[in-house]
Request: fold
Amino acid sequence: DYWYHVDTNETTWVKPAGYVDSDSAAPSSSADNDEASKWQKVHDEASGNDYWYHVETNETTWEMPAALIPVPKPPPSRENGASWQEIAEYLERKNQTITNKLEQLQQDYDKLKLESKDQSDSDAKHQRPQP
Reply:
């Protein structure tokens, strides 16, 4: 088994301190659904942004309330009944995602490096000659 933290997206093979097994915890799915249904998304014309309004407490927030944030599905594993093929496909997708991100970072780095070189060349051309 591994553990997944829904707020930080961290995963760990070591059981976190304070973790309560779902068997011993009170079921919260209906409570979460009830809480989520109390939030309404509202568009603010003045700013052009959306905000959320709680119909019972009148609370407002610019950030999506935690009750509305979807909980990511855990990755497939043998423990949750996934086949080896499903696990392999998942890992291939993750590998492709990481490869794409690395390529984008390399392109961004190369662009910044080129811009920095261009700026240095421009600065060198505009230096006052030494007597």
User: Anything to note?
Assistant: The chain has a mean pLDDT of 81.
